[in-house]
Amino acid sequence: MRYVEYYSEGQRQRLRLETISDGEKAFARQRPAAGQETVKPQEAGSAIFETLSSQQQRVSSRFHCLTKSEAYYSPSRVKAGTIIPTETVAVDGASSSEIRWMRSEYGMRPVAEGRCGKVLLIAPEDCDNRIAMAFEAADALFKRGNVGASHPNFLRVLQRPGPSAHTAETQWALDNPGEPGLIGADVHALAAWTVTTGSAGVRVAVLDEGVDTDHRYLENAVVAEADFVDGKQTAQPDGNDAHGTACAGIIAGQSDRAKGLAPGVRLVAARIAKSDDRGFWIFDDFETADAIDWAWERAKSDVLSNSWGGGPPADVIANAFNRARTQGREGKGTVVVVAAGNSQRQIDFPGDLDGVLTVGASNQWDERKTRSSKDGESWWGSNYGDELDLLAPGVRITTTDIWGPRGYSTKAVTTTFNGTSAAAPHVAAVAGLILSVKRELSEARVREIIKQKADALSQGDQPRLVGSGRLNAYMAVRAARRG
Questions:
Q1: CA-to-CA distance for 475 and 479, rounded, in angstroms?
Q2: Other C-beta atoms within 10 Å of 458: how many?
Q3: Could you tell me which of 127, 109, 130, 128 has the C-alpha nearest to residue 119?
Q4: How far apart are CA 45 and CA 77, in angstroms?
């Protein structure tokens, strides 16, 4: 076991690392209490290593030459994100002279170039410990003070949100009849639609594990797609990766069976993660940052919807979000929406970034979703903290699903989509509705409207738990009319 440090958010961040093989030995010695299910970061690290070593994706190929005694991971709690450092360094804003300096001093050479000045450097093959070299070189470059970011490039192994064990009887998030729940504990979609259902000139991007862009309830909305996992021309998901398709349906579903909150807007789909079929997502920080830059710069997205998060901060991602917010939409700014997380704990990266809309989950009773809330789902609760902006429906949401037995259901629609993953797209959709009403609004003004026009909740005196309240689409679009 060893401790390593790197710079992010202007501070030194510290990680505890151990090899995959040592983690397996430690896990074998653990004895959980009778009837207690344990979180298994060691098992996760080993499983992910096996997945990466056996597949041919661009990310996976970096592990083909490593054994379990040579590969490191950070055994944090799985729900907070397990981190696997690579022998590469993510650099943002470096001049050609800085890149030459890295090569002459450390033997680091460029292996990939991203958008907006991002470069991925790789450690030389002849050094004793390439991962340690990546940390050392990244640290040295950052201390020179001439770059926007320089840190080891991480793979994030995040726990994939699961569906509800129960089905929804109605699309309660749009119009809650109180069966079950509280009448009117919804986003007031029907009233909002008297103002707008969304403009085809507004684009909302879903950055996720892929979107079924051929889905009959989504295909007419899709205007751009890209794959940052395999480099394919489409954002189609693999296997049972249904999460992104569900998020997209909440925004722009075009069917009465699974109607999106902004069915008139257009969708941009960016695939940034893959599932390992064991309940974990795999993200590459450099590729995730490049997807963010692609979405606002190339695909001209007005809103970015991000139903993912966890793990330590990474400037290469934070900088990409900041570029979207400050340079997107010809300087008016792209609105960035992020899910708060489902572990009933402090909000993680990137939900803790300044200037993003961080969204928690509410239920059918207008409660903040907790392990003890009235919905009865005791296995998860919405994250909290000073960074929380508001809540939106996130329990048993009806939305689009990938076809066949690989999805949450066997049909084109699921009624069990769950989590702050479901809440965030509701807010992204309302941002799209606001911009459909008044395109010239800045992203800061859109965020302000959404927060100011949320409905107050019973815990309104505790903004760390509920933010400004529960999303109200109608009041938001009315306010947008006035600017």
A1: 6
A2: 11
A3: 109
A4: 11
Options 92, 139, 208, 401, the catalytic residue:
208
As a whole number of angstroms, the distance between CA 61 and CA 293 comes to 24
In single-letter form, the type of residue at position 294 comes to W
Backbone dihedral angles phi then psi of residue 287, each to the nearest 5 degrees: -70, -35
Contact (Cβ atoms closer than 8 angstroms) between residue 422 and residue 247: yes
Over residues 426-477, the pLDDT tens digits come to 999 999 999 999 999 999 999 999 999 999 998 767 999 999 999 999 999 9
CA distances from 98 to 6, 94, 147, 319 (A): 18, 6, 8, 19
Tell me which of 343, 421, 436, 468 is the catalytic residue.
421
| Residue the block writes with tokens 């009465």 | 256
Cis status, amide bond into 180, omega within 30 of 0 = yes
Q: Is 421 a catalytic residue?
A: yes
Please provide the size of the chain in residues. 483
- Written as one string, the DSSP assignment of 96-131 is HHHHHHHHHHH--EEEEE-GGGEEEEE--TTSS-HH
**Is 343 among the residues known to form the active site?**
no
Alpha-carbon distances, residue 298 vs 137, 222, 236 (angstroms): 31, 15, 19
The two three-digit tokens of residue 204, written as one number: 């909302």
Helical segments of 299-418, H only: 315-327
Is 340 exposed, middle or buried, given 0-12, 13-18 or 19+ CB atoms closer than 10 A? Answer: buried
List, in sequence order, the alpha helices (H) in 217-302: 243-252, 285-293
- Which residues, listed in sequence order, are joined to residue 281 by a DSSP beta bridge? 158, 275
Beta bridge partners of 339: 359
One-letter amino acid at 373 equals S
DSSP conformational letter for 470: B
Map out the domains of the chain with their CATH numbers: 2-159 (no CATH), 189-482 (3.40.50.200)
Name the active-site residue from 243, 290, 382, 401: 243
In sign, the C-alpha dihedral spanning 38, 163, 374, 360 is: positive
The SS3 call for residue 420 is helix
CA distances to 37, 364, 450 from 345, rounded to whole Å, are: 18, 21, 24
242 in Cβ contact with 307 (< 8 Å): no
Q: Which residue has the tokens 């021309």?
A: 233
Q: What is the pLDDT of residues 30-89, one digit of tens each?
A: 333 333 333 454 455 566 666 666 555 555 445 545 566 666 777 654 445 678 888 999
Instruction: Provide the residue type at 452 as one letter.
Output: Q
Asked whether the beta carbons of 17 and 74 are under 8 A apart, the reply is yes
Helix, coil or strand: residue 207? strand
> Is 256 among the catalytic positions?
no
* H or E element, residue 303: strand 303-306
Backbone angles phi, psi at 465, to 5 degrees: -100, -35
415 dihedral zone (left: phi>0; alpha: psi -120 to 50; beta): alpha
